[in-house]
Structure formats: structure tokens, C-alpha cells
């Protein structure tokens, strides 16, 4: 593929299945269930998405809703937690009261799940973690996890910086503090170039907060010349702040991000981003396969990593235009 800089293969996989051709639905709030009403003999699945904070999250939600369907033997109840752990815990308890066959969720943060996970375990309902991870004292709190290797993403970003900008003064624009993506991307990145980081702040994975954090960073660290953003949306907010300050993103300040959603790759083509590490959101098909196997009592891997790449400014406009998310 033109413009692809590196590929991280599938580390653990479920049975081979075709790529989802296109997503449907949106990252809407509230609940949505499968079209067939009572679900018939379908697997009843409660899925709690952590929110709709970014283009990546919306693409992930669309992929999940396009794959966890009646046609695929699943009766889905979907709840958007709006980035609040208390909403997510409430949703998980509702799933228990509804006696779901399988519960899946993308945790807002890593900690604070002990009680509700114990309640789910006591109810005998298997849990599938999606995208993010948890830290808990509950024994065997979930059957399997599917998502990206966040730490490897940080390492990939750090290696590019070390090779191309070994003397850069780096500001790290972090995601939601305490989330698996924030913790692991920071750890991987700093393992490679930690001594170059001169400042940090959370942009909470949103464009608006990414801009605000960058505005403050430009004042506090006048010598910074590279920003590592934990996702594209925060990087796009950084572009706005840099341009408002009369500087040129991608030239005066190098920008490295994680996600590779269409808006992020467009910024790469436009020369405003310099390097983007992919975090692939389109794995609803693999999730549906895992859930079906879990419900059937079949053996599944403890972890499934989705296939991902990384991109530099050699990608083309045609590649971005064809991007499905």
C-alpha cells in the first residue's frame, strides 16, 4: 500500500473473517436493539460504548453496530456512556438485570470496576473487553479482550521521532487520564524518547481540549518544536492553536498523532501532521465472531490485536478519499 510505513501483524486472532465493507448507524446516545424485537434465538448482548469523543470512537461504534446484528445472530442493546464511568457502571448493572447472554464494554478508565465486575461474575455472564483494558482485583473478570496494542503505538511514534527529530523538545498531548490508551501510549513513547519530553497535559481525546492544552503549552514552553498527541482529534485541535499563534503546523512545530481517521490523514496530506500511527477502529466483525464463540463455550484467545499500520506524508489524496472512516 502506497504510503504505508510499517505494519503490526495480528498477534492473536479468531477465525479468519472478511473485512467489513462499510459501517452503518452512528455514535448515537442512548440504546438501540436488533431489528427482530425479542431477538428469538439470537445471542443477547449488552454493549456499553464509553462515548463519542472522537472520529475514531464514532467509526468504532459504527463498526460494532454494523456487525452485532440480527443477521449475524445477535440481539444488541447498545448504550453510550458519554465518557462517564458512573453511566457505564449503571449500564452494566442494567445488563445484569436484563440477564444478557454476553456483556461487552469499552471502559472509560482502567480502575474502579471491582464491584460491578464481581456482580457480573456472580450472575454468570461472560464479559468481553473492547478497545481498552481494566485493572481489577476480581479473579478472571473477563473472558477475552480485543483491541489495539496501545503501548506498541507509543513505541512506533517514539521510534519515528528518535529517527527523524532526535533533538526535538516534545510536548505530550495526553488522552483521558487513567485510560488504557493514555497510560500505555505514554509508556511506550517515553520508553524511546522520554528524555525529550519537556511538558505534558491532557486534552481528554477531544479536539476542543486539545486546542486549549496546546494554547497553554505554547505559552509555557516557547522552545517546544514537536507535539505528540495521543489521538488525531487532539492533534487537529493543536493545529488550530498553532495557526492562531501565527505559526505553521508541520513545519514550525512537528505533529505526531495516533488514530489515522480520515481527518487526521487529510492533515497528513496537507502537511500539517508529519506522522500518524494507526489505531484501527473497524473490528466489529472480529468482535461478533468472538462473542458468538464465547456464548457457545468455545475456546478463544485471551487477547486479540487488530492489524494496524503507520503513515507519513507520502500518502496520497486518493488514499485518504478511499478511507472508510
Number of helices: 10
Which range best describes the helical content: under 10%, 10-25%, 25-40%, 40-55%, 55-70% or over 70%?
Answer: 25-40%
CATH architecture of the largest domain, please?
3-Layer(aba) Sandwich
Uncertain runs with pLDDT below 50, 5 residues or more?
A: 1-39
Overall mean pLDDT stands at: 89
In whole angstroms, the N-to-C terminal distance is 17 Å
Total tally of structural domains: 2
β content, as a range?
A: 15-25%
Short structural summary:
With 325 residues, the protein is an alpha/beta fold.
Describe the structure.
- It is elongated, with a radius of gyration of 20 Å.
- Helix 1 packs across helix 9 (284-295), helix 4 runs parallel beside helix 5 and helix 6 crosses helix 7.
- The protein is α/β, with parallel strands linked by helices and 325 residues long.
- 36% of the residues lie in helices and 20% in strands.
- It contains 10 helices and 14 strands.
- Helix 8 (262-269) links the parallel strand 11 and strand 12.
- The chain has helices at 55-67, 85-97, 114-122, 150-164, 180-193, 207-220, 232-244, 262-269, 284-295, 317-321, and strands at 4-8, 31-32, 43-49, 74-80, 102-105, 127-130, 144-147, 170-174, 197-202, 226-229, 254-259, 275-278, 303-305, 308-312.
- It has 2 domains: 10-147 and 281-305, 3-Layer(aba) Sandwich (Rossmann fold), CATH 3.40.50.2300; 150-279, Response regulator (Rossmann fold), CATH 3.40.50.2300.
- Mean pLDDT is 89; it is low at 1-39.
